[in-house]
Amino acid sequence: MVRRGVDTVGELPADLATAVRLGGEMGRRFAAYDWAGHPLGPISGWPPAYRSAVTAALSSRFPIVLWLGAQDLYLVYNDGYLPMLGEKHPSALGSPGREVWWDILDSIGPMLSGVVETGAATWSDDLLLPIWTAGRPQERYFTFSYGPIVLADGQVDGVFCAVNETTDRVLGGRRLSILNHVAGALMETRTVDDAVRAAVEVCARQPADLPVLAVYVDDPATGTSRLRGSTPEVAGLLPATLGELYPGPRSGTRVLDDLPTRLPGLASAFPAGVPEQALVIPLPDPVQVSVGGALVVGVNPRQPLDDQYRGFCRLLGDQLTAVLATAGLYERERHRADDLAELDRVKTAFLANVSHEFRTPLTLLLGPVQDAIAAAADQPEQVERLDMVHRNALRLLRLVNSLLDFSRIEAGGATANRVPVDLGTLTAHIASAFTELCQRAGLELVIRCPPVTAEVDPQMWETIVLNLLSNAVKFTFHGSITVELTRSGDRVRLQITDTGAGIAADERDRLFDRFYRASNTRARSVEGSGIGLSLVRSLVELHDGTIELDSEVDVGTTVTIRLPAAPGATPGAVHPSGEADNPYVTEAAQWVQGRAAAPAMLTGGRPLVLIADDNPDMRRHLDRILSERWETVVYGDGKAALRGVRAHRPDLVVTDVMMPGLDGLGFAAAIRADPRLASTPILMLSARAGHEAAEEGFRHGADDYLPKPFRSADLVNRVAARLMAVGRDRVSRERDRRATAVAEFRAALSAATTLEDVLGAVLGAPAGSLGATSAVIGLLEGGQEQIRATFAGALPAELRDRYHLVARDAPVPLADVVRTGAPMTVPDTLDLDERYELVVRDGRDSVRSAVIHPLRDAAGMVTGALGLYWPQPRPFEPADLDEVTRTAAAVSSALDRIRVAQREHRIATDFQDHLLDLDRGSTAAVVSAVYQPAGEAMRVGGDWYLVVPLDDPARVAISVGDVVSHGLPAATVMSKLRSAITAGALTDADPPPVLHLLERYAARVPGALCSTVAYAVVDTDTRTLSYACAGHLYPLLVTPDGTTRYLEEGRWPPLAARALGGSGEVGYADLPSGSLVLLYTDGLIERVGESLDDGFARLERAAADCATLPVDQVCTTLLRRLVPPGGFTDDVVVLALRPSGTTPDTFVATLPAVREETPRLRHRLRDWLTGLRVNGELEYDILLGTGEAVSNAIEHGSHLDSDKTVTVEAFADDERISITVGDSGQWSSDSSASRRSSARGRGLTLINGLSERVDTVRSARGTQVTLYYRRDAGPVEVAR
Amino acid sequence: MSTASFALTPHPAAPDGTAVAVTGEIDITNAVDFVKAITERADSRQLVVDFSDLCFVDSAGFAALDDLLARDAITIVIRPGSRLRRAATLMGLPYLDELP
């Protein structure tokens, strides 16, 4: 519209000339405008009111538009107004208002004419004006006022408008409110369906931001994602599976552009404006046990799909992800509980069936035996044998009856037939059956049972008392057993107290569990089914009673039973079963009888056999059989028998496995350990049948193994054969020695808790690893396509680096063994096939011979391989390979065990890691954070860390916080608070608005009460830190010289607990380059029985030592240094941040993962090294090594993803320069595919070859490579 | 300066133009340009290239030199005392101490 440049600044009145000069672009345009050719006429003729309005507008930075002339309202506006006009500028200047703002004239037309007609100003707050931009209306909000421009004559001749666009604030507020509502609705949901329904229901009420919303959930059965819910407008339009909406892989958020084409019928569902784009946000499955899926959000065509809109949708996705994970875990727990209940029921039914089946034959056995005893009265030997049969059949019957009782109770089928009895008399009667027995055992039996009336089932009561008494006898070797009945109020109390071995505290709680057997070795017998106490408890509970057990090791045990008394009832007569055939007493009597029956003297001549068995019947039986051919000595337990072996030097030992005190295995091992006895052959007997039991026996040194029951002739033959072989059995000694070594190896393996431990055990056991000097375990991962290798022993770092990740089809022996499942022996690597040329050359200095054996899981599938390496060539015998086969099997089972043990812990950590993804997009600082769940518990927690990169690249917000409780509910609350902080920080990052927002938000979230938060904003331009702590522990600042300072200002009350006080102010601190900021949760420093100040001091000391460590190492070092003995008792989060920047001694930089950044970084690093006066050669070596590490991090660690960052932290002291290069990813490509001639292969050579030392740490957080260079590095000449 | 750059100048010790000296930096971002520049200059005869005063060369640069060597396009000179000597030796790069 500029027609000619007549009106120059020089010709304007002074006030307008000044305004034009201050007015920027619009000043120039206004001045250059041909007002003379305009209906308003030349400026010189304008009324003073126009001039002052124009002056005010042009000189203001606030958006102002003037509508001049009452009739046509011609527009004049300033620079601030340009964003509102968009493409309407510059033609809008001087144009009639109705032509410019035709699109919103319906809304503003009446307001404008109202002002012109009445002179009354208008005020509009956040008014929606659908301004057309790029051919379509956009939803935009404005706060503005129209005021009159009044001429000298009082007439209104224009409108003055100050306007502010509030679109971002209105949309932001609205979206935050949606997120709050969704969070609230999801809070109580427990299943996937509920969660989807609740989310859809809330979102359906928000058509402005979420015109279309659909949730697809993965269906493992079909491998597809199925539609589980959608907003009503698109119900019936969306395909049933996600694959039909768009094919292809699901990775990252995707934008679908042609939504109406993909969903025919969509246009008619949205007559007012059809959503043309949709976001597909993956809902990952973080814990593998729950569900993943995708969230589809249709984009409102009237809102631009900008970062804010995307961020909102992503937060919505995060919420759904968290709740789906919760739902998945919850459903899994429910299924597990159901399964356990079913298993229990099946077990009980089985017991009942089996017990019934046993009773019939036993009863049929007992009658004839009694007849036989009567008939054989004149044959004492025969009677003795038959007595033994009778006694043991009775014992079996008792066990079966107990089992049957027990299963009846478990199945809920037993009812106590309760009658009023004099419980005192009944109890005394039952207990007195043990009188004679106790006398023989040297125990005092005290019975104090005055008459008390109670209602009990007499037979059940008898079972209770007999069980408890027989237990007392079993574990008591001297002292007394007291049975005491008392009445107190309306309860009857029975206490049975012994002075026996007692039970350790950690076993006490489990004693009443069925089949649980205390591992007490001090007992008269190890026989028992493990159901006695459990049965007693069930019976007591049937009587509405309680049972308690109080015990102290080596002091004694008291069992207390309380029952309701029945004082009014008249007790009837009771008839307890006669003590003569009381099987409990008979059985207990067996334990007491002749504990060791060593012979008085031995007649020489015949070979001597030593017999050790705790069961007197069995002992007599063995003695009878063996004494016919050989001399015998007989012992009742392992310890006595060992003394016997030392005293008598028997030619052969026959021992039972299960014995009180020292058992048969320990006994055998003790014989083998004594060089004077080691050659004694041992024949082991055990009731435990099966290959494994025999294996265990052999491992402990047995020469032969005979499972019970056995035929007498078998035993005699075995003993005879063994004795004949004694002379030529010297070889077996060697095998014994070997077996011991293998046993030690197994023990070390079974103590291993990590892959490194396993390798340590392998290398530490020359018997199992043939004396190898280094070893590797390679395990398949990543969809089985690659092998991750862990090394131990004497191997150079470069070799470990080069082969830590190997493709399954790589030309590497380890990979071939995994692929073919066939073991490989390599007597000399130089003779290997040409195919392996590279790996042979790379390893030549440390590996010249090898055995590589596949590792298989329980199902026989190859899961990886174990490699053993030697630095010299060596031959291998077939027996060697057998040895390695056994080692590999043991390693496999150790790995299985470790996998299972770590799995639950890992689920918790993975879940938390997912919830706590660390955004490393900011280049303002290097940040690392760790989460450590308490102990080994499978538990997610309420601790969080958070990093929010801000729009200003020099600023970044960080937070650490703690929700009061634990478990999934806390994790859910945590996740919500974390989302709210993110939303707050992105809106206005300063601490007060963020904490105010969080307080308001927390008040609506159940469970958020009293959560504590530390929040800080780092600004690397001003080198300051602003922070606030809501009830949270002080941030710690560490400067490069190791000075520490807690930041104690900026105190706020814990969330939603305003009454608890706090200043509500912001704390400020200088943050010099190179310094370290630490945020942490209280679990890091709190210890039971210690003041918090001790914890603060401890952290301060540890942190001071971290002043020149890279942040990732700071986190791990603090966790390691501050862990209390026995592990953390609370969840712990540590976040460490070091701002980008340099000092003479430190260099910190974060760069986007793109190749172009490498030269830029190099130049900055060179400047720093120049300041350190490093000589040219060392400077080049450092730049080269660091550059290669950075290139690797950009390419392999970050996959050239410019949203990821690579960090560099360098520290110099007088002796060394250390440089840590970190990335946040994992290598996914084959590290061994690198050839020395390829760039990456050269890179590793340069990294390792020119530095003093290289450390590589790979973790879930990424890869950290630290290079160390000596500053005085002389000319370390590389051989040419 | 935020990108890598190098310069080729006629070697003062070889006025006939059969030798050049390289200065500046060669890295992953400009290694290809370097190969091109040398190839243009070599013009089917073998060129002697003195790297002694080159400030920086990375693994991609060494790979580029291997390419040129494989094509018999250059002879490499790295004088004793040059900062590049150790890395070049480690890379197994064949070089001369002096101009031939």
Brief summary of the model shown:
Helices cover 40% and strands 23% of the residues of chain A. With 1280 residues, chain A is of the alpha+beta class.
The fraction of residues assigned to DSSP E strands of chain A is: 15-25%
Tell me the major beta sheet of chain B: 5 strands, mixed
| Oligomerization status of the protein chains | heterodimer
What overall form of chain B do the CA principal axes indicate? globular
First-to-last CA distance of chain B:
34 Å
| DSSP, total strands of chain B | 5
Structural class of chain A: alpha+beta
Describe the structure.
The complex is a heterodimer of chains A (1280) and B (100). By secondary structure, chain A is an alpha+beta fold. Helix content of chain A is 40%, strand content 23%. In chain A, helix 1 packs across helix 2 and helix 7 (167-187) runs antiparallel to helix 32. The longest helix of chain A is centred in the N-terminal third of the chain and has 69 residues, at 307-375. Chain B is of the alpha/beta class. Helices cover 30% and strands 25% of the residues of chain B. Chain B is built from three helices and five strands, in the order E-E-H-E-E-H-E-H. Chain B has helices at 31-42, 59-70, 85-90, and strands spanning 6-10, 19-26, 47-50, 54-57, 74-77. In chain B, strands 1, 2, 3, 4 and 5 form a five-stranded mixed beta sheet that branches. In chain B, helix 1 runs parallel beside helix 2 (59-70). The longest helix of chain B has 12 residues, at 31-42. The chains are: A alpha+beta (1280), B alpha/beta (100). Chains A and B meet through helix 36, helix 37 and helix 38 of A and strand 4, helix 2 and helix 3 of B.
